[in-house]
Sequence to fold (262 residues):
Amino acid sequence: MELKDVKIGFIGFGNMASAMADGWLASNEIAGEQMYACSGSYERLLERTEWRNMHACKDAAELVGKVDLVVVAIKPYMIEPVLTPIADALANVPFISVAAGWDCAEFDKVLPGTRHVSTIPNTPVSIDEGVIACENISTLGEDERVLVHELLGLLGTVVEVETKLLSVAGTVGGCSPAFIAMVIEALGDAAVKYGIPRAQAYKMVSQMVAGTAKLQLASGVHPGVMKDAVCSPGGTTIKGVAELEAAGMRSAFIRAIDVIEG
Fold:
């Protein structure tokens, strides 16, 4: 199936689902008319779908009957009560799950006979710069797997991981935008402290973060080597690095992941 023909349905249309929809729209490969959604509040759903030219459905049963692929984007505790009543219909349509904690084996227990893959995207998918952790096993057919990876690839970088690593991969990719936003805010505050207007400060810092990340991806150079390249002997940068080390910056990030995974 060509991308221009595929019909995608979102069961649940909260922040992550709308970020994915926006990313597909931004890619110019998927039109709003190709996407359908249902959620708890139909009136609120209309507000979120109309300006995207998407179709709003009254419930999951209606949606599943109209699409070629489903994105399950509801809270983990809602999966069984929402999906089991439509299990027979769902068996006819492959689905992508973005629900944390639900891997292939969990879905097989609750929805045997369905075709699915478990993923954990992050919010930058809305501008096609996301990272999507994807379980490396699924019950998708080969053509379905190719289609799903093509669609997810429009949203950013797809990283396939073993089931046991899906949670931590999702945590690192999914939660870290909040951590990096805090870094941007903190460095912006420092710039403002010394007189740079806030709008300029955030623009500078965000571009610095984006540029540094793109440089690492393009070069493949170890981040420590990149750090060393900026630190001249006795220079200013190494003094700042030493202060960050003394403040426990490195261990603070690791502990942030530990507390989520623990």
User: Anything to note?
Assistant: The chain is about 55% helix and 15% strand. The beta strands are 8-11, 35-38, 55-56, 69-72, 95-97, 116-120, 130-135, 156-161. The first helix runs from residue 15 to 26.
